[in-house]
Specification:
This protein has about 80 residues and is α+β, with helices and mostly antiparallel strands. About 35% of the residues lie in helices and about 20% in strands. The protein contains 4 helices and 3 strands. The N and C termini lie far apart (about 35 Å).
């Protein structure tokens, strides 16, 4: 597989910022992802919220499903 010349920046870094990810708790919980019209896109649960949401931040274009990539590009807010 050919490697891209440049890795594109994950939209979550641009929209939510590094500070959002830095202050996430490591406790268990539920998270909700919303789109630009306020529509609920996804509800997830995690034993460690910080680790789970950081995994979305580390998504690689060449290694992720189309469904995951589409979700990440639609997210405007995570609660």
């Amino acid at each position: 597989m050919q490697q891209p010349l440049l890795e594109l920046q994950n939209p979550l870094d641009v929209i939510l910022g590094k500070e959002f990810f830095d202050r996430l708790p490591t406790s268990a919980g539920i998270y909700k992802m919303y789109g630009d019209q306020g529509e609920l896109l996804y509800v997830g649960k995690a034993k460690n919220l910080k680790a789970r949401l950081m995994s979305y931040r580390r998504v690689k274009i060449t290694e992720s499903s189309r469904k995951t990539l589409t979700l990440i590009h639609r997210i405007l807010h995570i609660q």
